[in-house]
Amino acid sequence: xxxPLAKMGFLHGGLTDFHHRRIxxxxxxxxxxxxxALQFTCSTISPCADVARDRxxxxxxxxxxxxVRQAVSTAQRIGIAATASTAGGPLADQVRACARAAxxxxxxxxxxxDGAYAEMLAGNMPAHDRIVRGYLEQMAxxxxxxxxxxxxxxxxxxxxxPETRKVPILTSPxxxxxxxxxxxxx
Length: 186
Prior knowledge:
By secondary structure, the protein is an alpha/beta fold. Helices cover 54% and strands 12% of the residues.
């Protein structure tokens, strides 16, 4: 856990060389400490995993990668909802790269749920959830599947009445843990 890295990414409007160096140091430290795998838990930082993987001797996993693979394998129109301005772009890039690798032509709609992040920072989770829910309901009319760019958004899906969930809404926590379990099982 290096929570300041995500906050720095938000303040700088994205990742910097410092982020990539710091993540590489974390991966090296995890290996030296005897870790069997490293699980990234932040979509904003996930692009650093690509560089870290090339240098690592242990598996380096992105929290959103299993979700992305599932979406690309099942959908033509993929919506991405984010509350932090730094999370949607990296996830959209990951979806496009996965689709290219699979030889699929897909449409990606990345949407920033305006105001939700500020409400979360203010501790007003009911307002955060209401804003996100509204965006998800709108996006469901235009997409085959919706990806949530941040694990913190997963709770909103559980609060949605089934009739408002017109398309699958994928969240990263459960899928990432299932993938990690597979990797550790060998």
